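Quality-control log, excerpt.
Job 1 of 2 completed; input and output follow.
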Amino acid sequence: MAYKRKTLRTMPPKTRRLARLINELDSTLRRLKNILPDIADAEIAERAMFNQVRAAKSGPAQDAADEGDTGDLFSAAEQN
């Protein structure tokens, strides 16, 4: 619960300072709770993009690498 200015004025200085810190903590926690779903959505989108890029890189490149390996095997067999 936030302390109002009128309440803070009646408090001793050290208690007032502590109450202000509590208000700031409450405000920060509320902001973090509000931003949490946005961060989760961004993380999910980032993982999806990473998986798409990885799938795009491994698809044709992997096929070309397999063909190269096969060619090396045939050339080695012909030399023997």
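Job 2 of 2 completed; input and output follow.
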Amino acid sequence: MFTALIEMKYHKLFFLFMLFGMNLSASSFIVGFKVPVYLTASIRFGYDSNVLKLSSEEQSRDEVNFILGSADTFDSGFTRKNLMIKYSPRIIENHKTKIVMNIAQTEYYQHSDKSFVSFSVSAEQHFDSYHWLKFRYSNLPTYYIRPYRDSDTFSDGLQSCDFSNENIRLIYSVPVYNKTSIKIRLGRTKLYYNPYFTEFDTDVTSFRTTLSIYKIKPFKFIAWAELGTGNNISYLSETTSSKFDRSYKYNQFGGEIEWSPKSIIKSVGFSIDIHQRYYLSEGEDDPLHSGRKHEDVKSMAWIKKDVTNKLGFSLSVVNRQKTTFSDYSWVQDLKSYNKFEIWLGCSYKMYFNFLY
């Protein structure tokens, strides 16, 4: 009897210790979520020399006024506002977790139809030195391109063309050498157009590798290469214009160099990105896409300056040139264009402890 009572007391003590340990574990887990929330608000004031990406041939057409709509010029000033929210709870001990949300609004002064809103959310988990697993979702609900003729009607009038862009990316980064890492990215993008132009609906699948080198201070080098396929999902659907296959393959590659001197400026950088697309159509009755390919080259230079640990400024210049190759000279003239952008950006960082 006495022995049974002793055993019962031990069992109760063990049970109490278990509850106490679980409570401590739960408390530690909850405390891991009580961390600051960081906000970065930024704004850019910029200029775009060719908002609608019109070729020289299109700019000289009689119908260009209909394409421009209420605008009087091909160029426009713009403002881009962005809010980034960063939250890093301590879920796994000694390993960072990041949740980042972005919402941005871009307004064009002369071309109000081109204004748009976009947002994204990403979750990043650290496992070891330079080992990160990231998931990112972004959405551009509506992006206006310009007016086009609807091939499914007999009207010569122009219809506004816009599309939505939904993108999912899975990224894993691993170290390959001292202060050198490589990222592997799988992507899936849905480009769906408004009811007048559903013949262009496309699902894009991509694979990308990025090499980052941080060893040669104060320089940072990044190089990337990407392969992708755009599947025209509305091909051979009910509409007349869907008898043409707009599917394509592409490759994309580029590099970036950034110099971060210990001086009055934070960094100076330059990047170049080359996108080469090859349409798969070989139909003689589809001269606009048959045998067509293009090379889109985008180069960018920037300088950044931190005034305080919270306030920073940046100045960026972008040049973009798209050259189209086709058996038909009119297609080359129609689908080639160039443009440049310049913008001044300002950002301010804050944090809040309302989760404490």
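Post-run check on job 2. Residues 1-8 have pLDDT under 50 and may be disordered.
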